[in-house]
Every structure is written in structure tokens, then in C-alpha cells.
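One chain given next:
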Amino acid sequence: MGGSGLVIPRPRSRPVWVPVPEPPSPAFDASRLVGVVLEVLDGRRASRLLREVAVPALAARLGRLVCSRSTRMVRVPRVCHPSRFVAEVSVTVRREGRVLAVAGRAEHRGGRWWFTSFTVLD
């Protein structure tokens, strides 16, 4: 076409927004916390230990479920962090010849992890 001198500018690239990564969750030892609760529920450890790993209302509820039995984790707990200070845990356990599921939710408060929910699905 004949030298009209029309120059079409190229579109500018837009900056790509990259979110600032959230710091990692504080260290969470699911095996230890689940193990403490299961050992208390089986009567192998003192129920007062529940106050060190569970919020007060949950510790009281779990303390009423103590019964002499044997529960063992079959696999390493699976942990999901829906947010930085929340961990959801699931694990398969063997109790008296049966395989059961355990589910729990822990929250990081005051510099440590506390179970806010813990259920053995019977």
C-alpha cells in the first residue's frame, strides 16, 4: 500500500501478577499427636495428656471415651493444610481385629498445635 505512514503500535505486555507465597505451616507431627490421643483412648496413657494436645471441650469429651483396648496405626497419617494454621488429618487404624478410620482437625494456636476435632469412625 502506498506509504501512508500509518504505524500501528504493538500492544504492551501487561505485568504478570505473582502472589507472594504464604510462609509454610508450622511443623506439625501428626503421628505423635494422633498417637497420644489413641494411647489415651486405649487406657495406655493418662487422660490428663489430652489437655496438652486438644482444646478443653474436646479433651473432656475424649476423656469420657477411655476404654482398655489396643489400637495401632496401620499407615502414616495423611495431612492436608487447608490454610497455614489448620491441618486436617486422616489415618487408618487397627482396633481389636477391625480396621477403622480416624479423622481430626488441628489448629495452630499459642505456638502449638491443638486438636479441635477428633473422631474414630466406628
Observations:
- The helical segments are 30-41, 50-53, 56-63.
- DSSP finds three helices and five strands in the chain.
- Residues 92 and 101 are 5 Å apart (CA to CA).
- The longest strand covers residues 98-109.
